Amino acid sequence: MNSPDIPSSATLTPERPHVRLGFVALSDAAPLAAAALRDMGRRHGISIELCRQPSWAAVRDKLLSGELDAAHALYGLVYGVQLGIGGPQADMAVLMVLNRNGQAITLSNPLADAIGRGASVKDALASLGRTPVIAQTFPTGTHAMWLYYWLAAQGVHPLSDVRSLVIPPPRMADALVEGTLDGFCAGEPWHAVAEACGAGRTVVYTSEIWPDHPEKVLACRRDFVALYPNTARALIRTMLEACEWLDSREHRVEIAGALASPDLLGVRRQLIEARLGSVTGVAPLRFFEGGAVNYPRASDGLWFITQYRRWGMLDAALDDAAIAQAVNQTALYAQAARAAGIAIPDETQTATLCDGRVWDGRDAKAYLAGFAMHA
């Protein structure tokens, strides 16, 4: 177990009554915005200070320095730091999943037009006559992994057939307008912004790559959990309440207005609401659904490690499953969720991705060995 049971005599008063939460300007920061603006932490003994960050690298650096207590973070960012890939290593913790789905890949109009006329993605990219440039948001992040996985499924090698750049999400649409990019993979509302600018069109939603994939998590350093376990539980309780509040379409419309603020996303409400407001369809952002969204299943983290190995980002002989069990705070989450009367989903979950490969986390080595395209 990655967190001990709560002693019966323990006080549940948070050790840190004021918590600094980092976020990047994305629609799926909605749980943090709802929790802060509606003061949902009060009943759990905490106040929340939202701290907007310009990039995922800034989120990482401020989590490590202690300037942030916790953050809305890319699932893969947490694992990249844990494994020391491309930056400093630190023991990290995933407290809960904040959302599933809701990301996309947008390509320039010429590429989107070619695909719309029936060209394969591989042929459309080749028609440029040069190496396509497609951006993602962090080297080990979810968007890099969705982009790589989708390209490989289309017969395009993501490391040699395209040039992949890292750009902060709020810069994506502008870079596409400027012609710096041929496409990008990121979160909303930046795809809606790109389409509104006439610069490109969404060609695939990430829920079409991995239906109900894990996306952003509530993350912190593992020593924060050790030092302030009651605070960590209070944070989970607060974010579960916020995620549940967002299950309502009316509440999503409401929070879209708040997210439009310059202090949060600084994007027109209509563009945020267009893709955040829907609770059905091909790419619905899922925030709660009875807690089915939020359980930090260790196999989800393990999947990212398989992809780092697939693409040559990690070759050390490690106990990958044990790392995922240590990072994902399943016991701590269960304590908080049960206290809120929220059911704990099954540990094992099967997912079929866009290439037909099935992931269930039980044999990661065999899963990894089954990929025809790799580094």
TrEMBL record:
GO terms for cellular component: endomembrane system. This is Nitrate transporter component. Its main location: membrane. It is found in: Endomembrane system. Keywords: Cell inner membrane, Cell membrane, Membrane, Signal, Transport. The keyword Transmembrane helix does not apply. It comes from the Bacteria. The keyword Zinc does not apply.
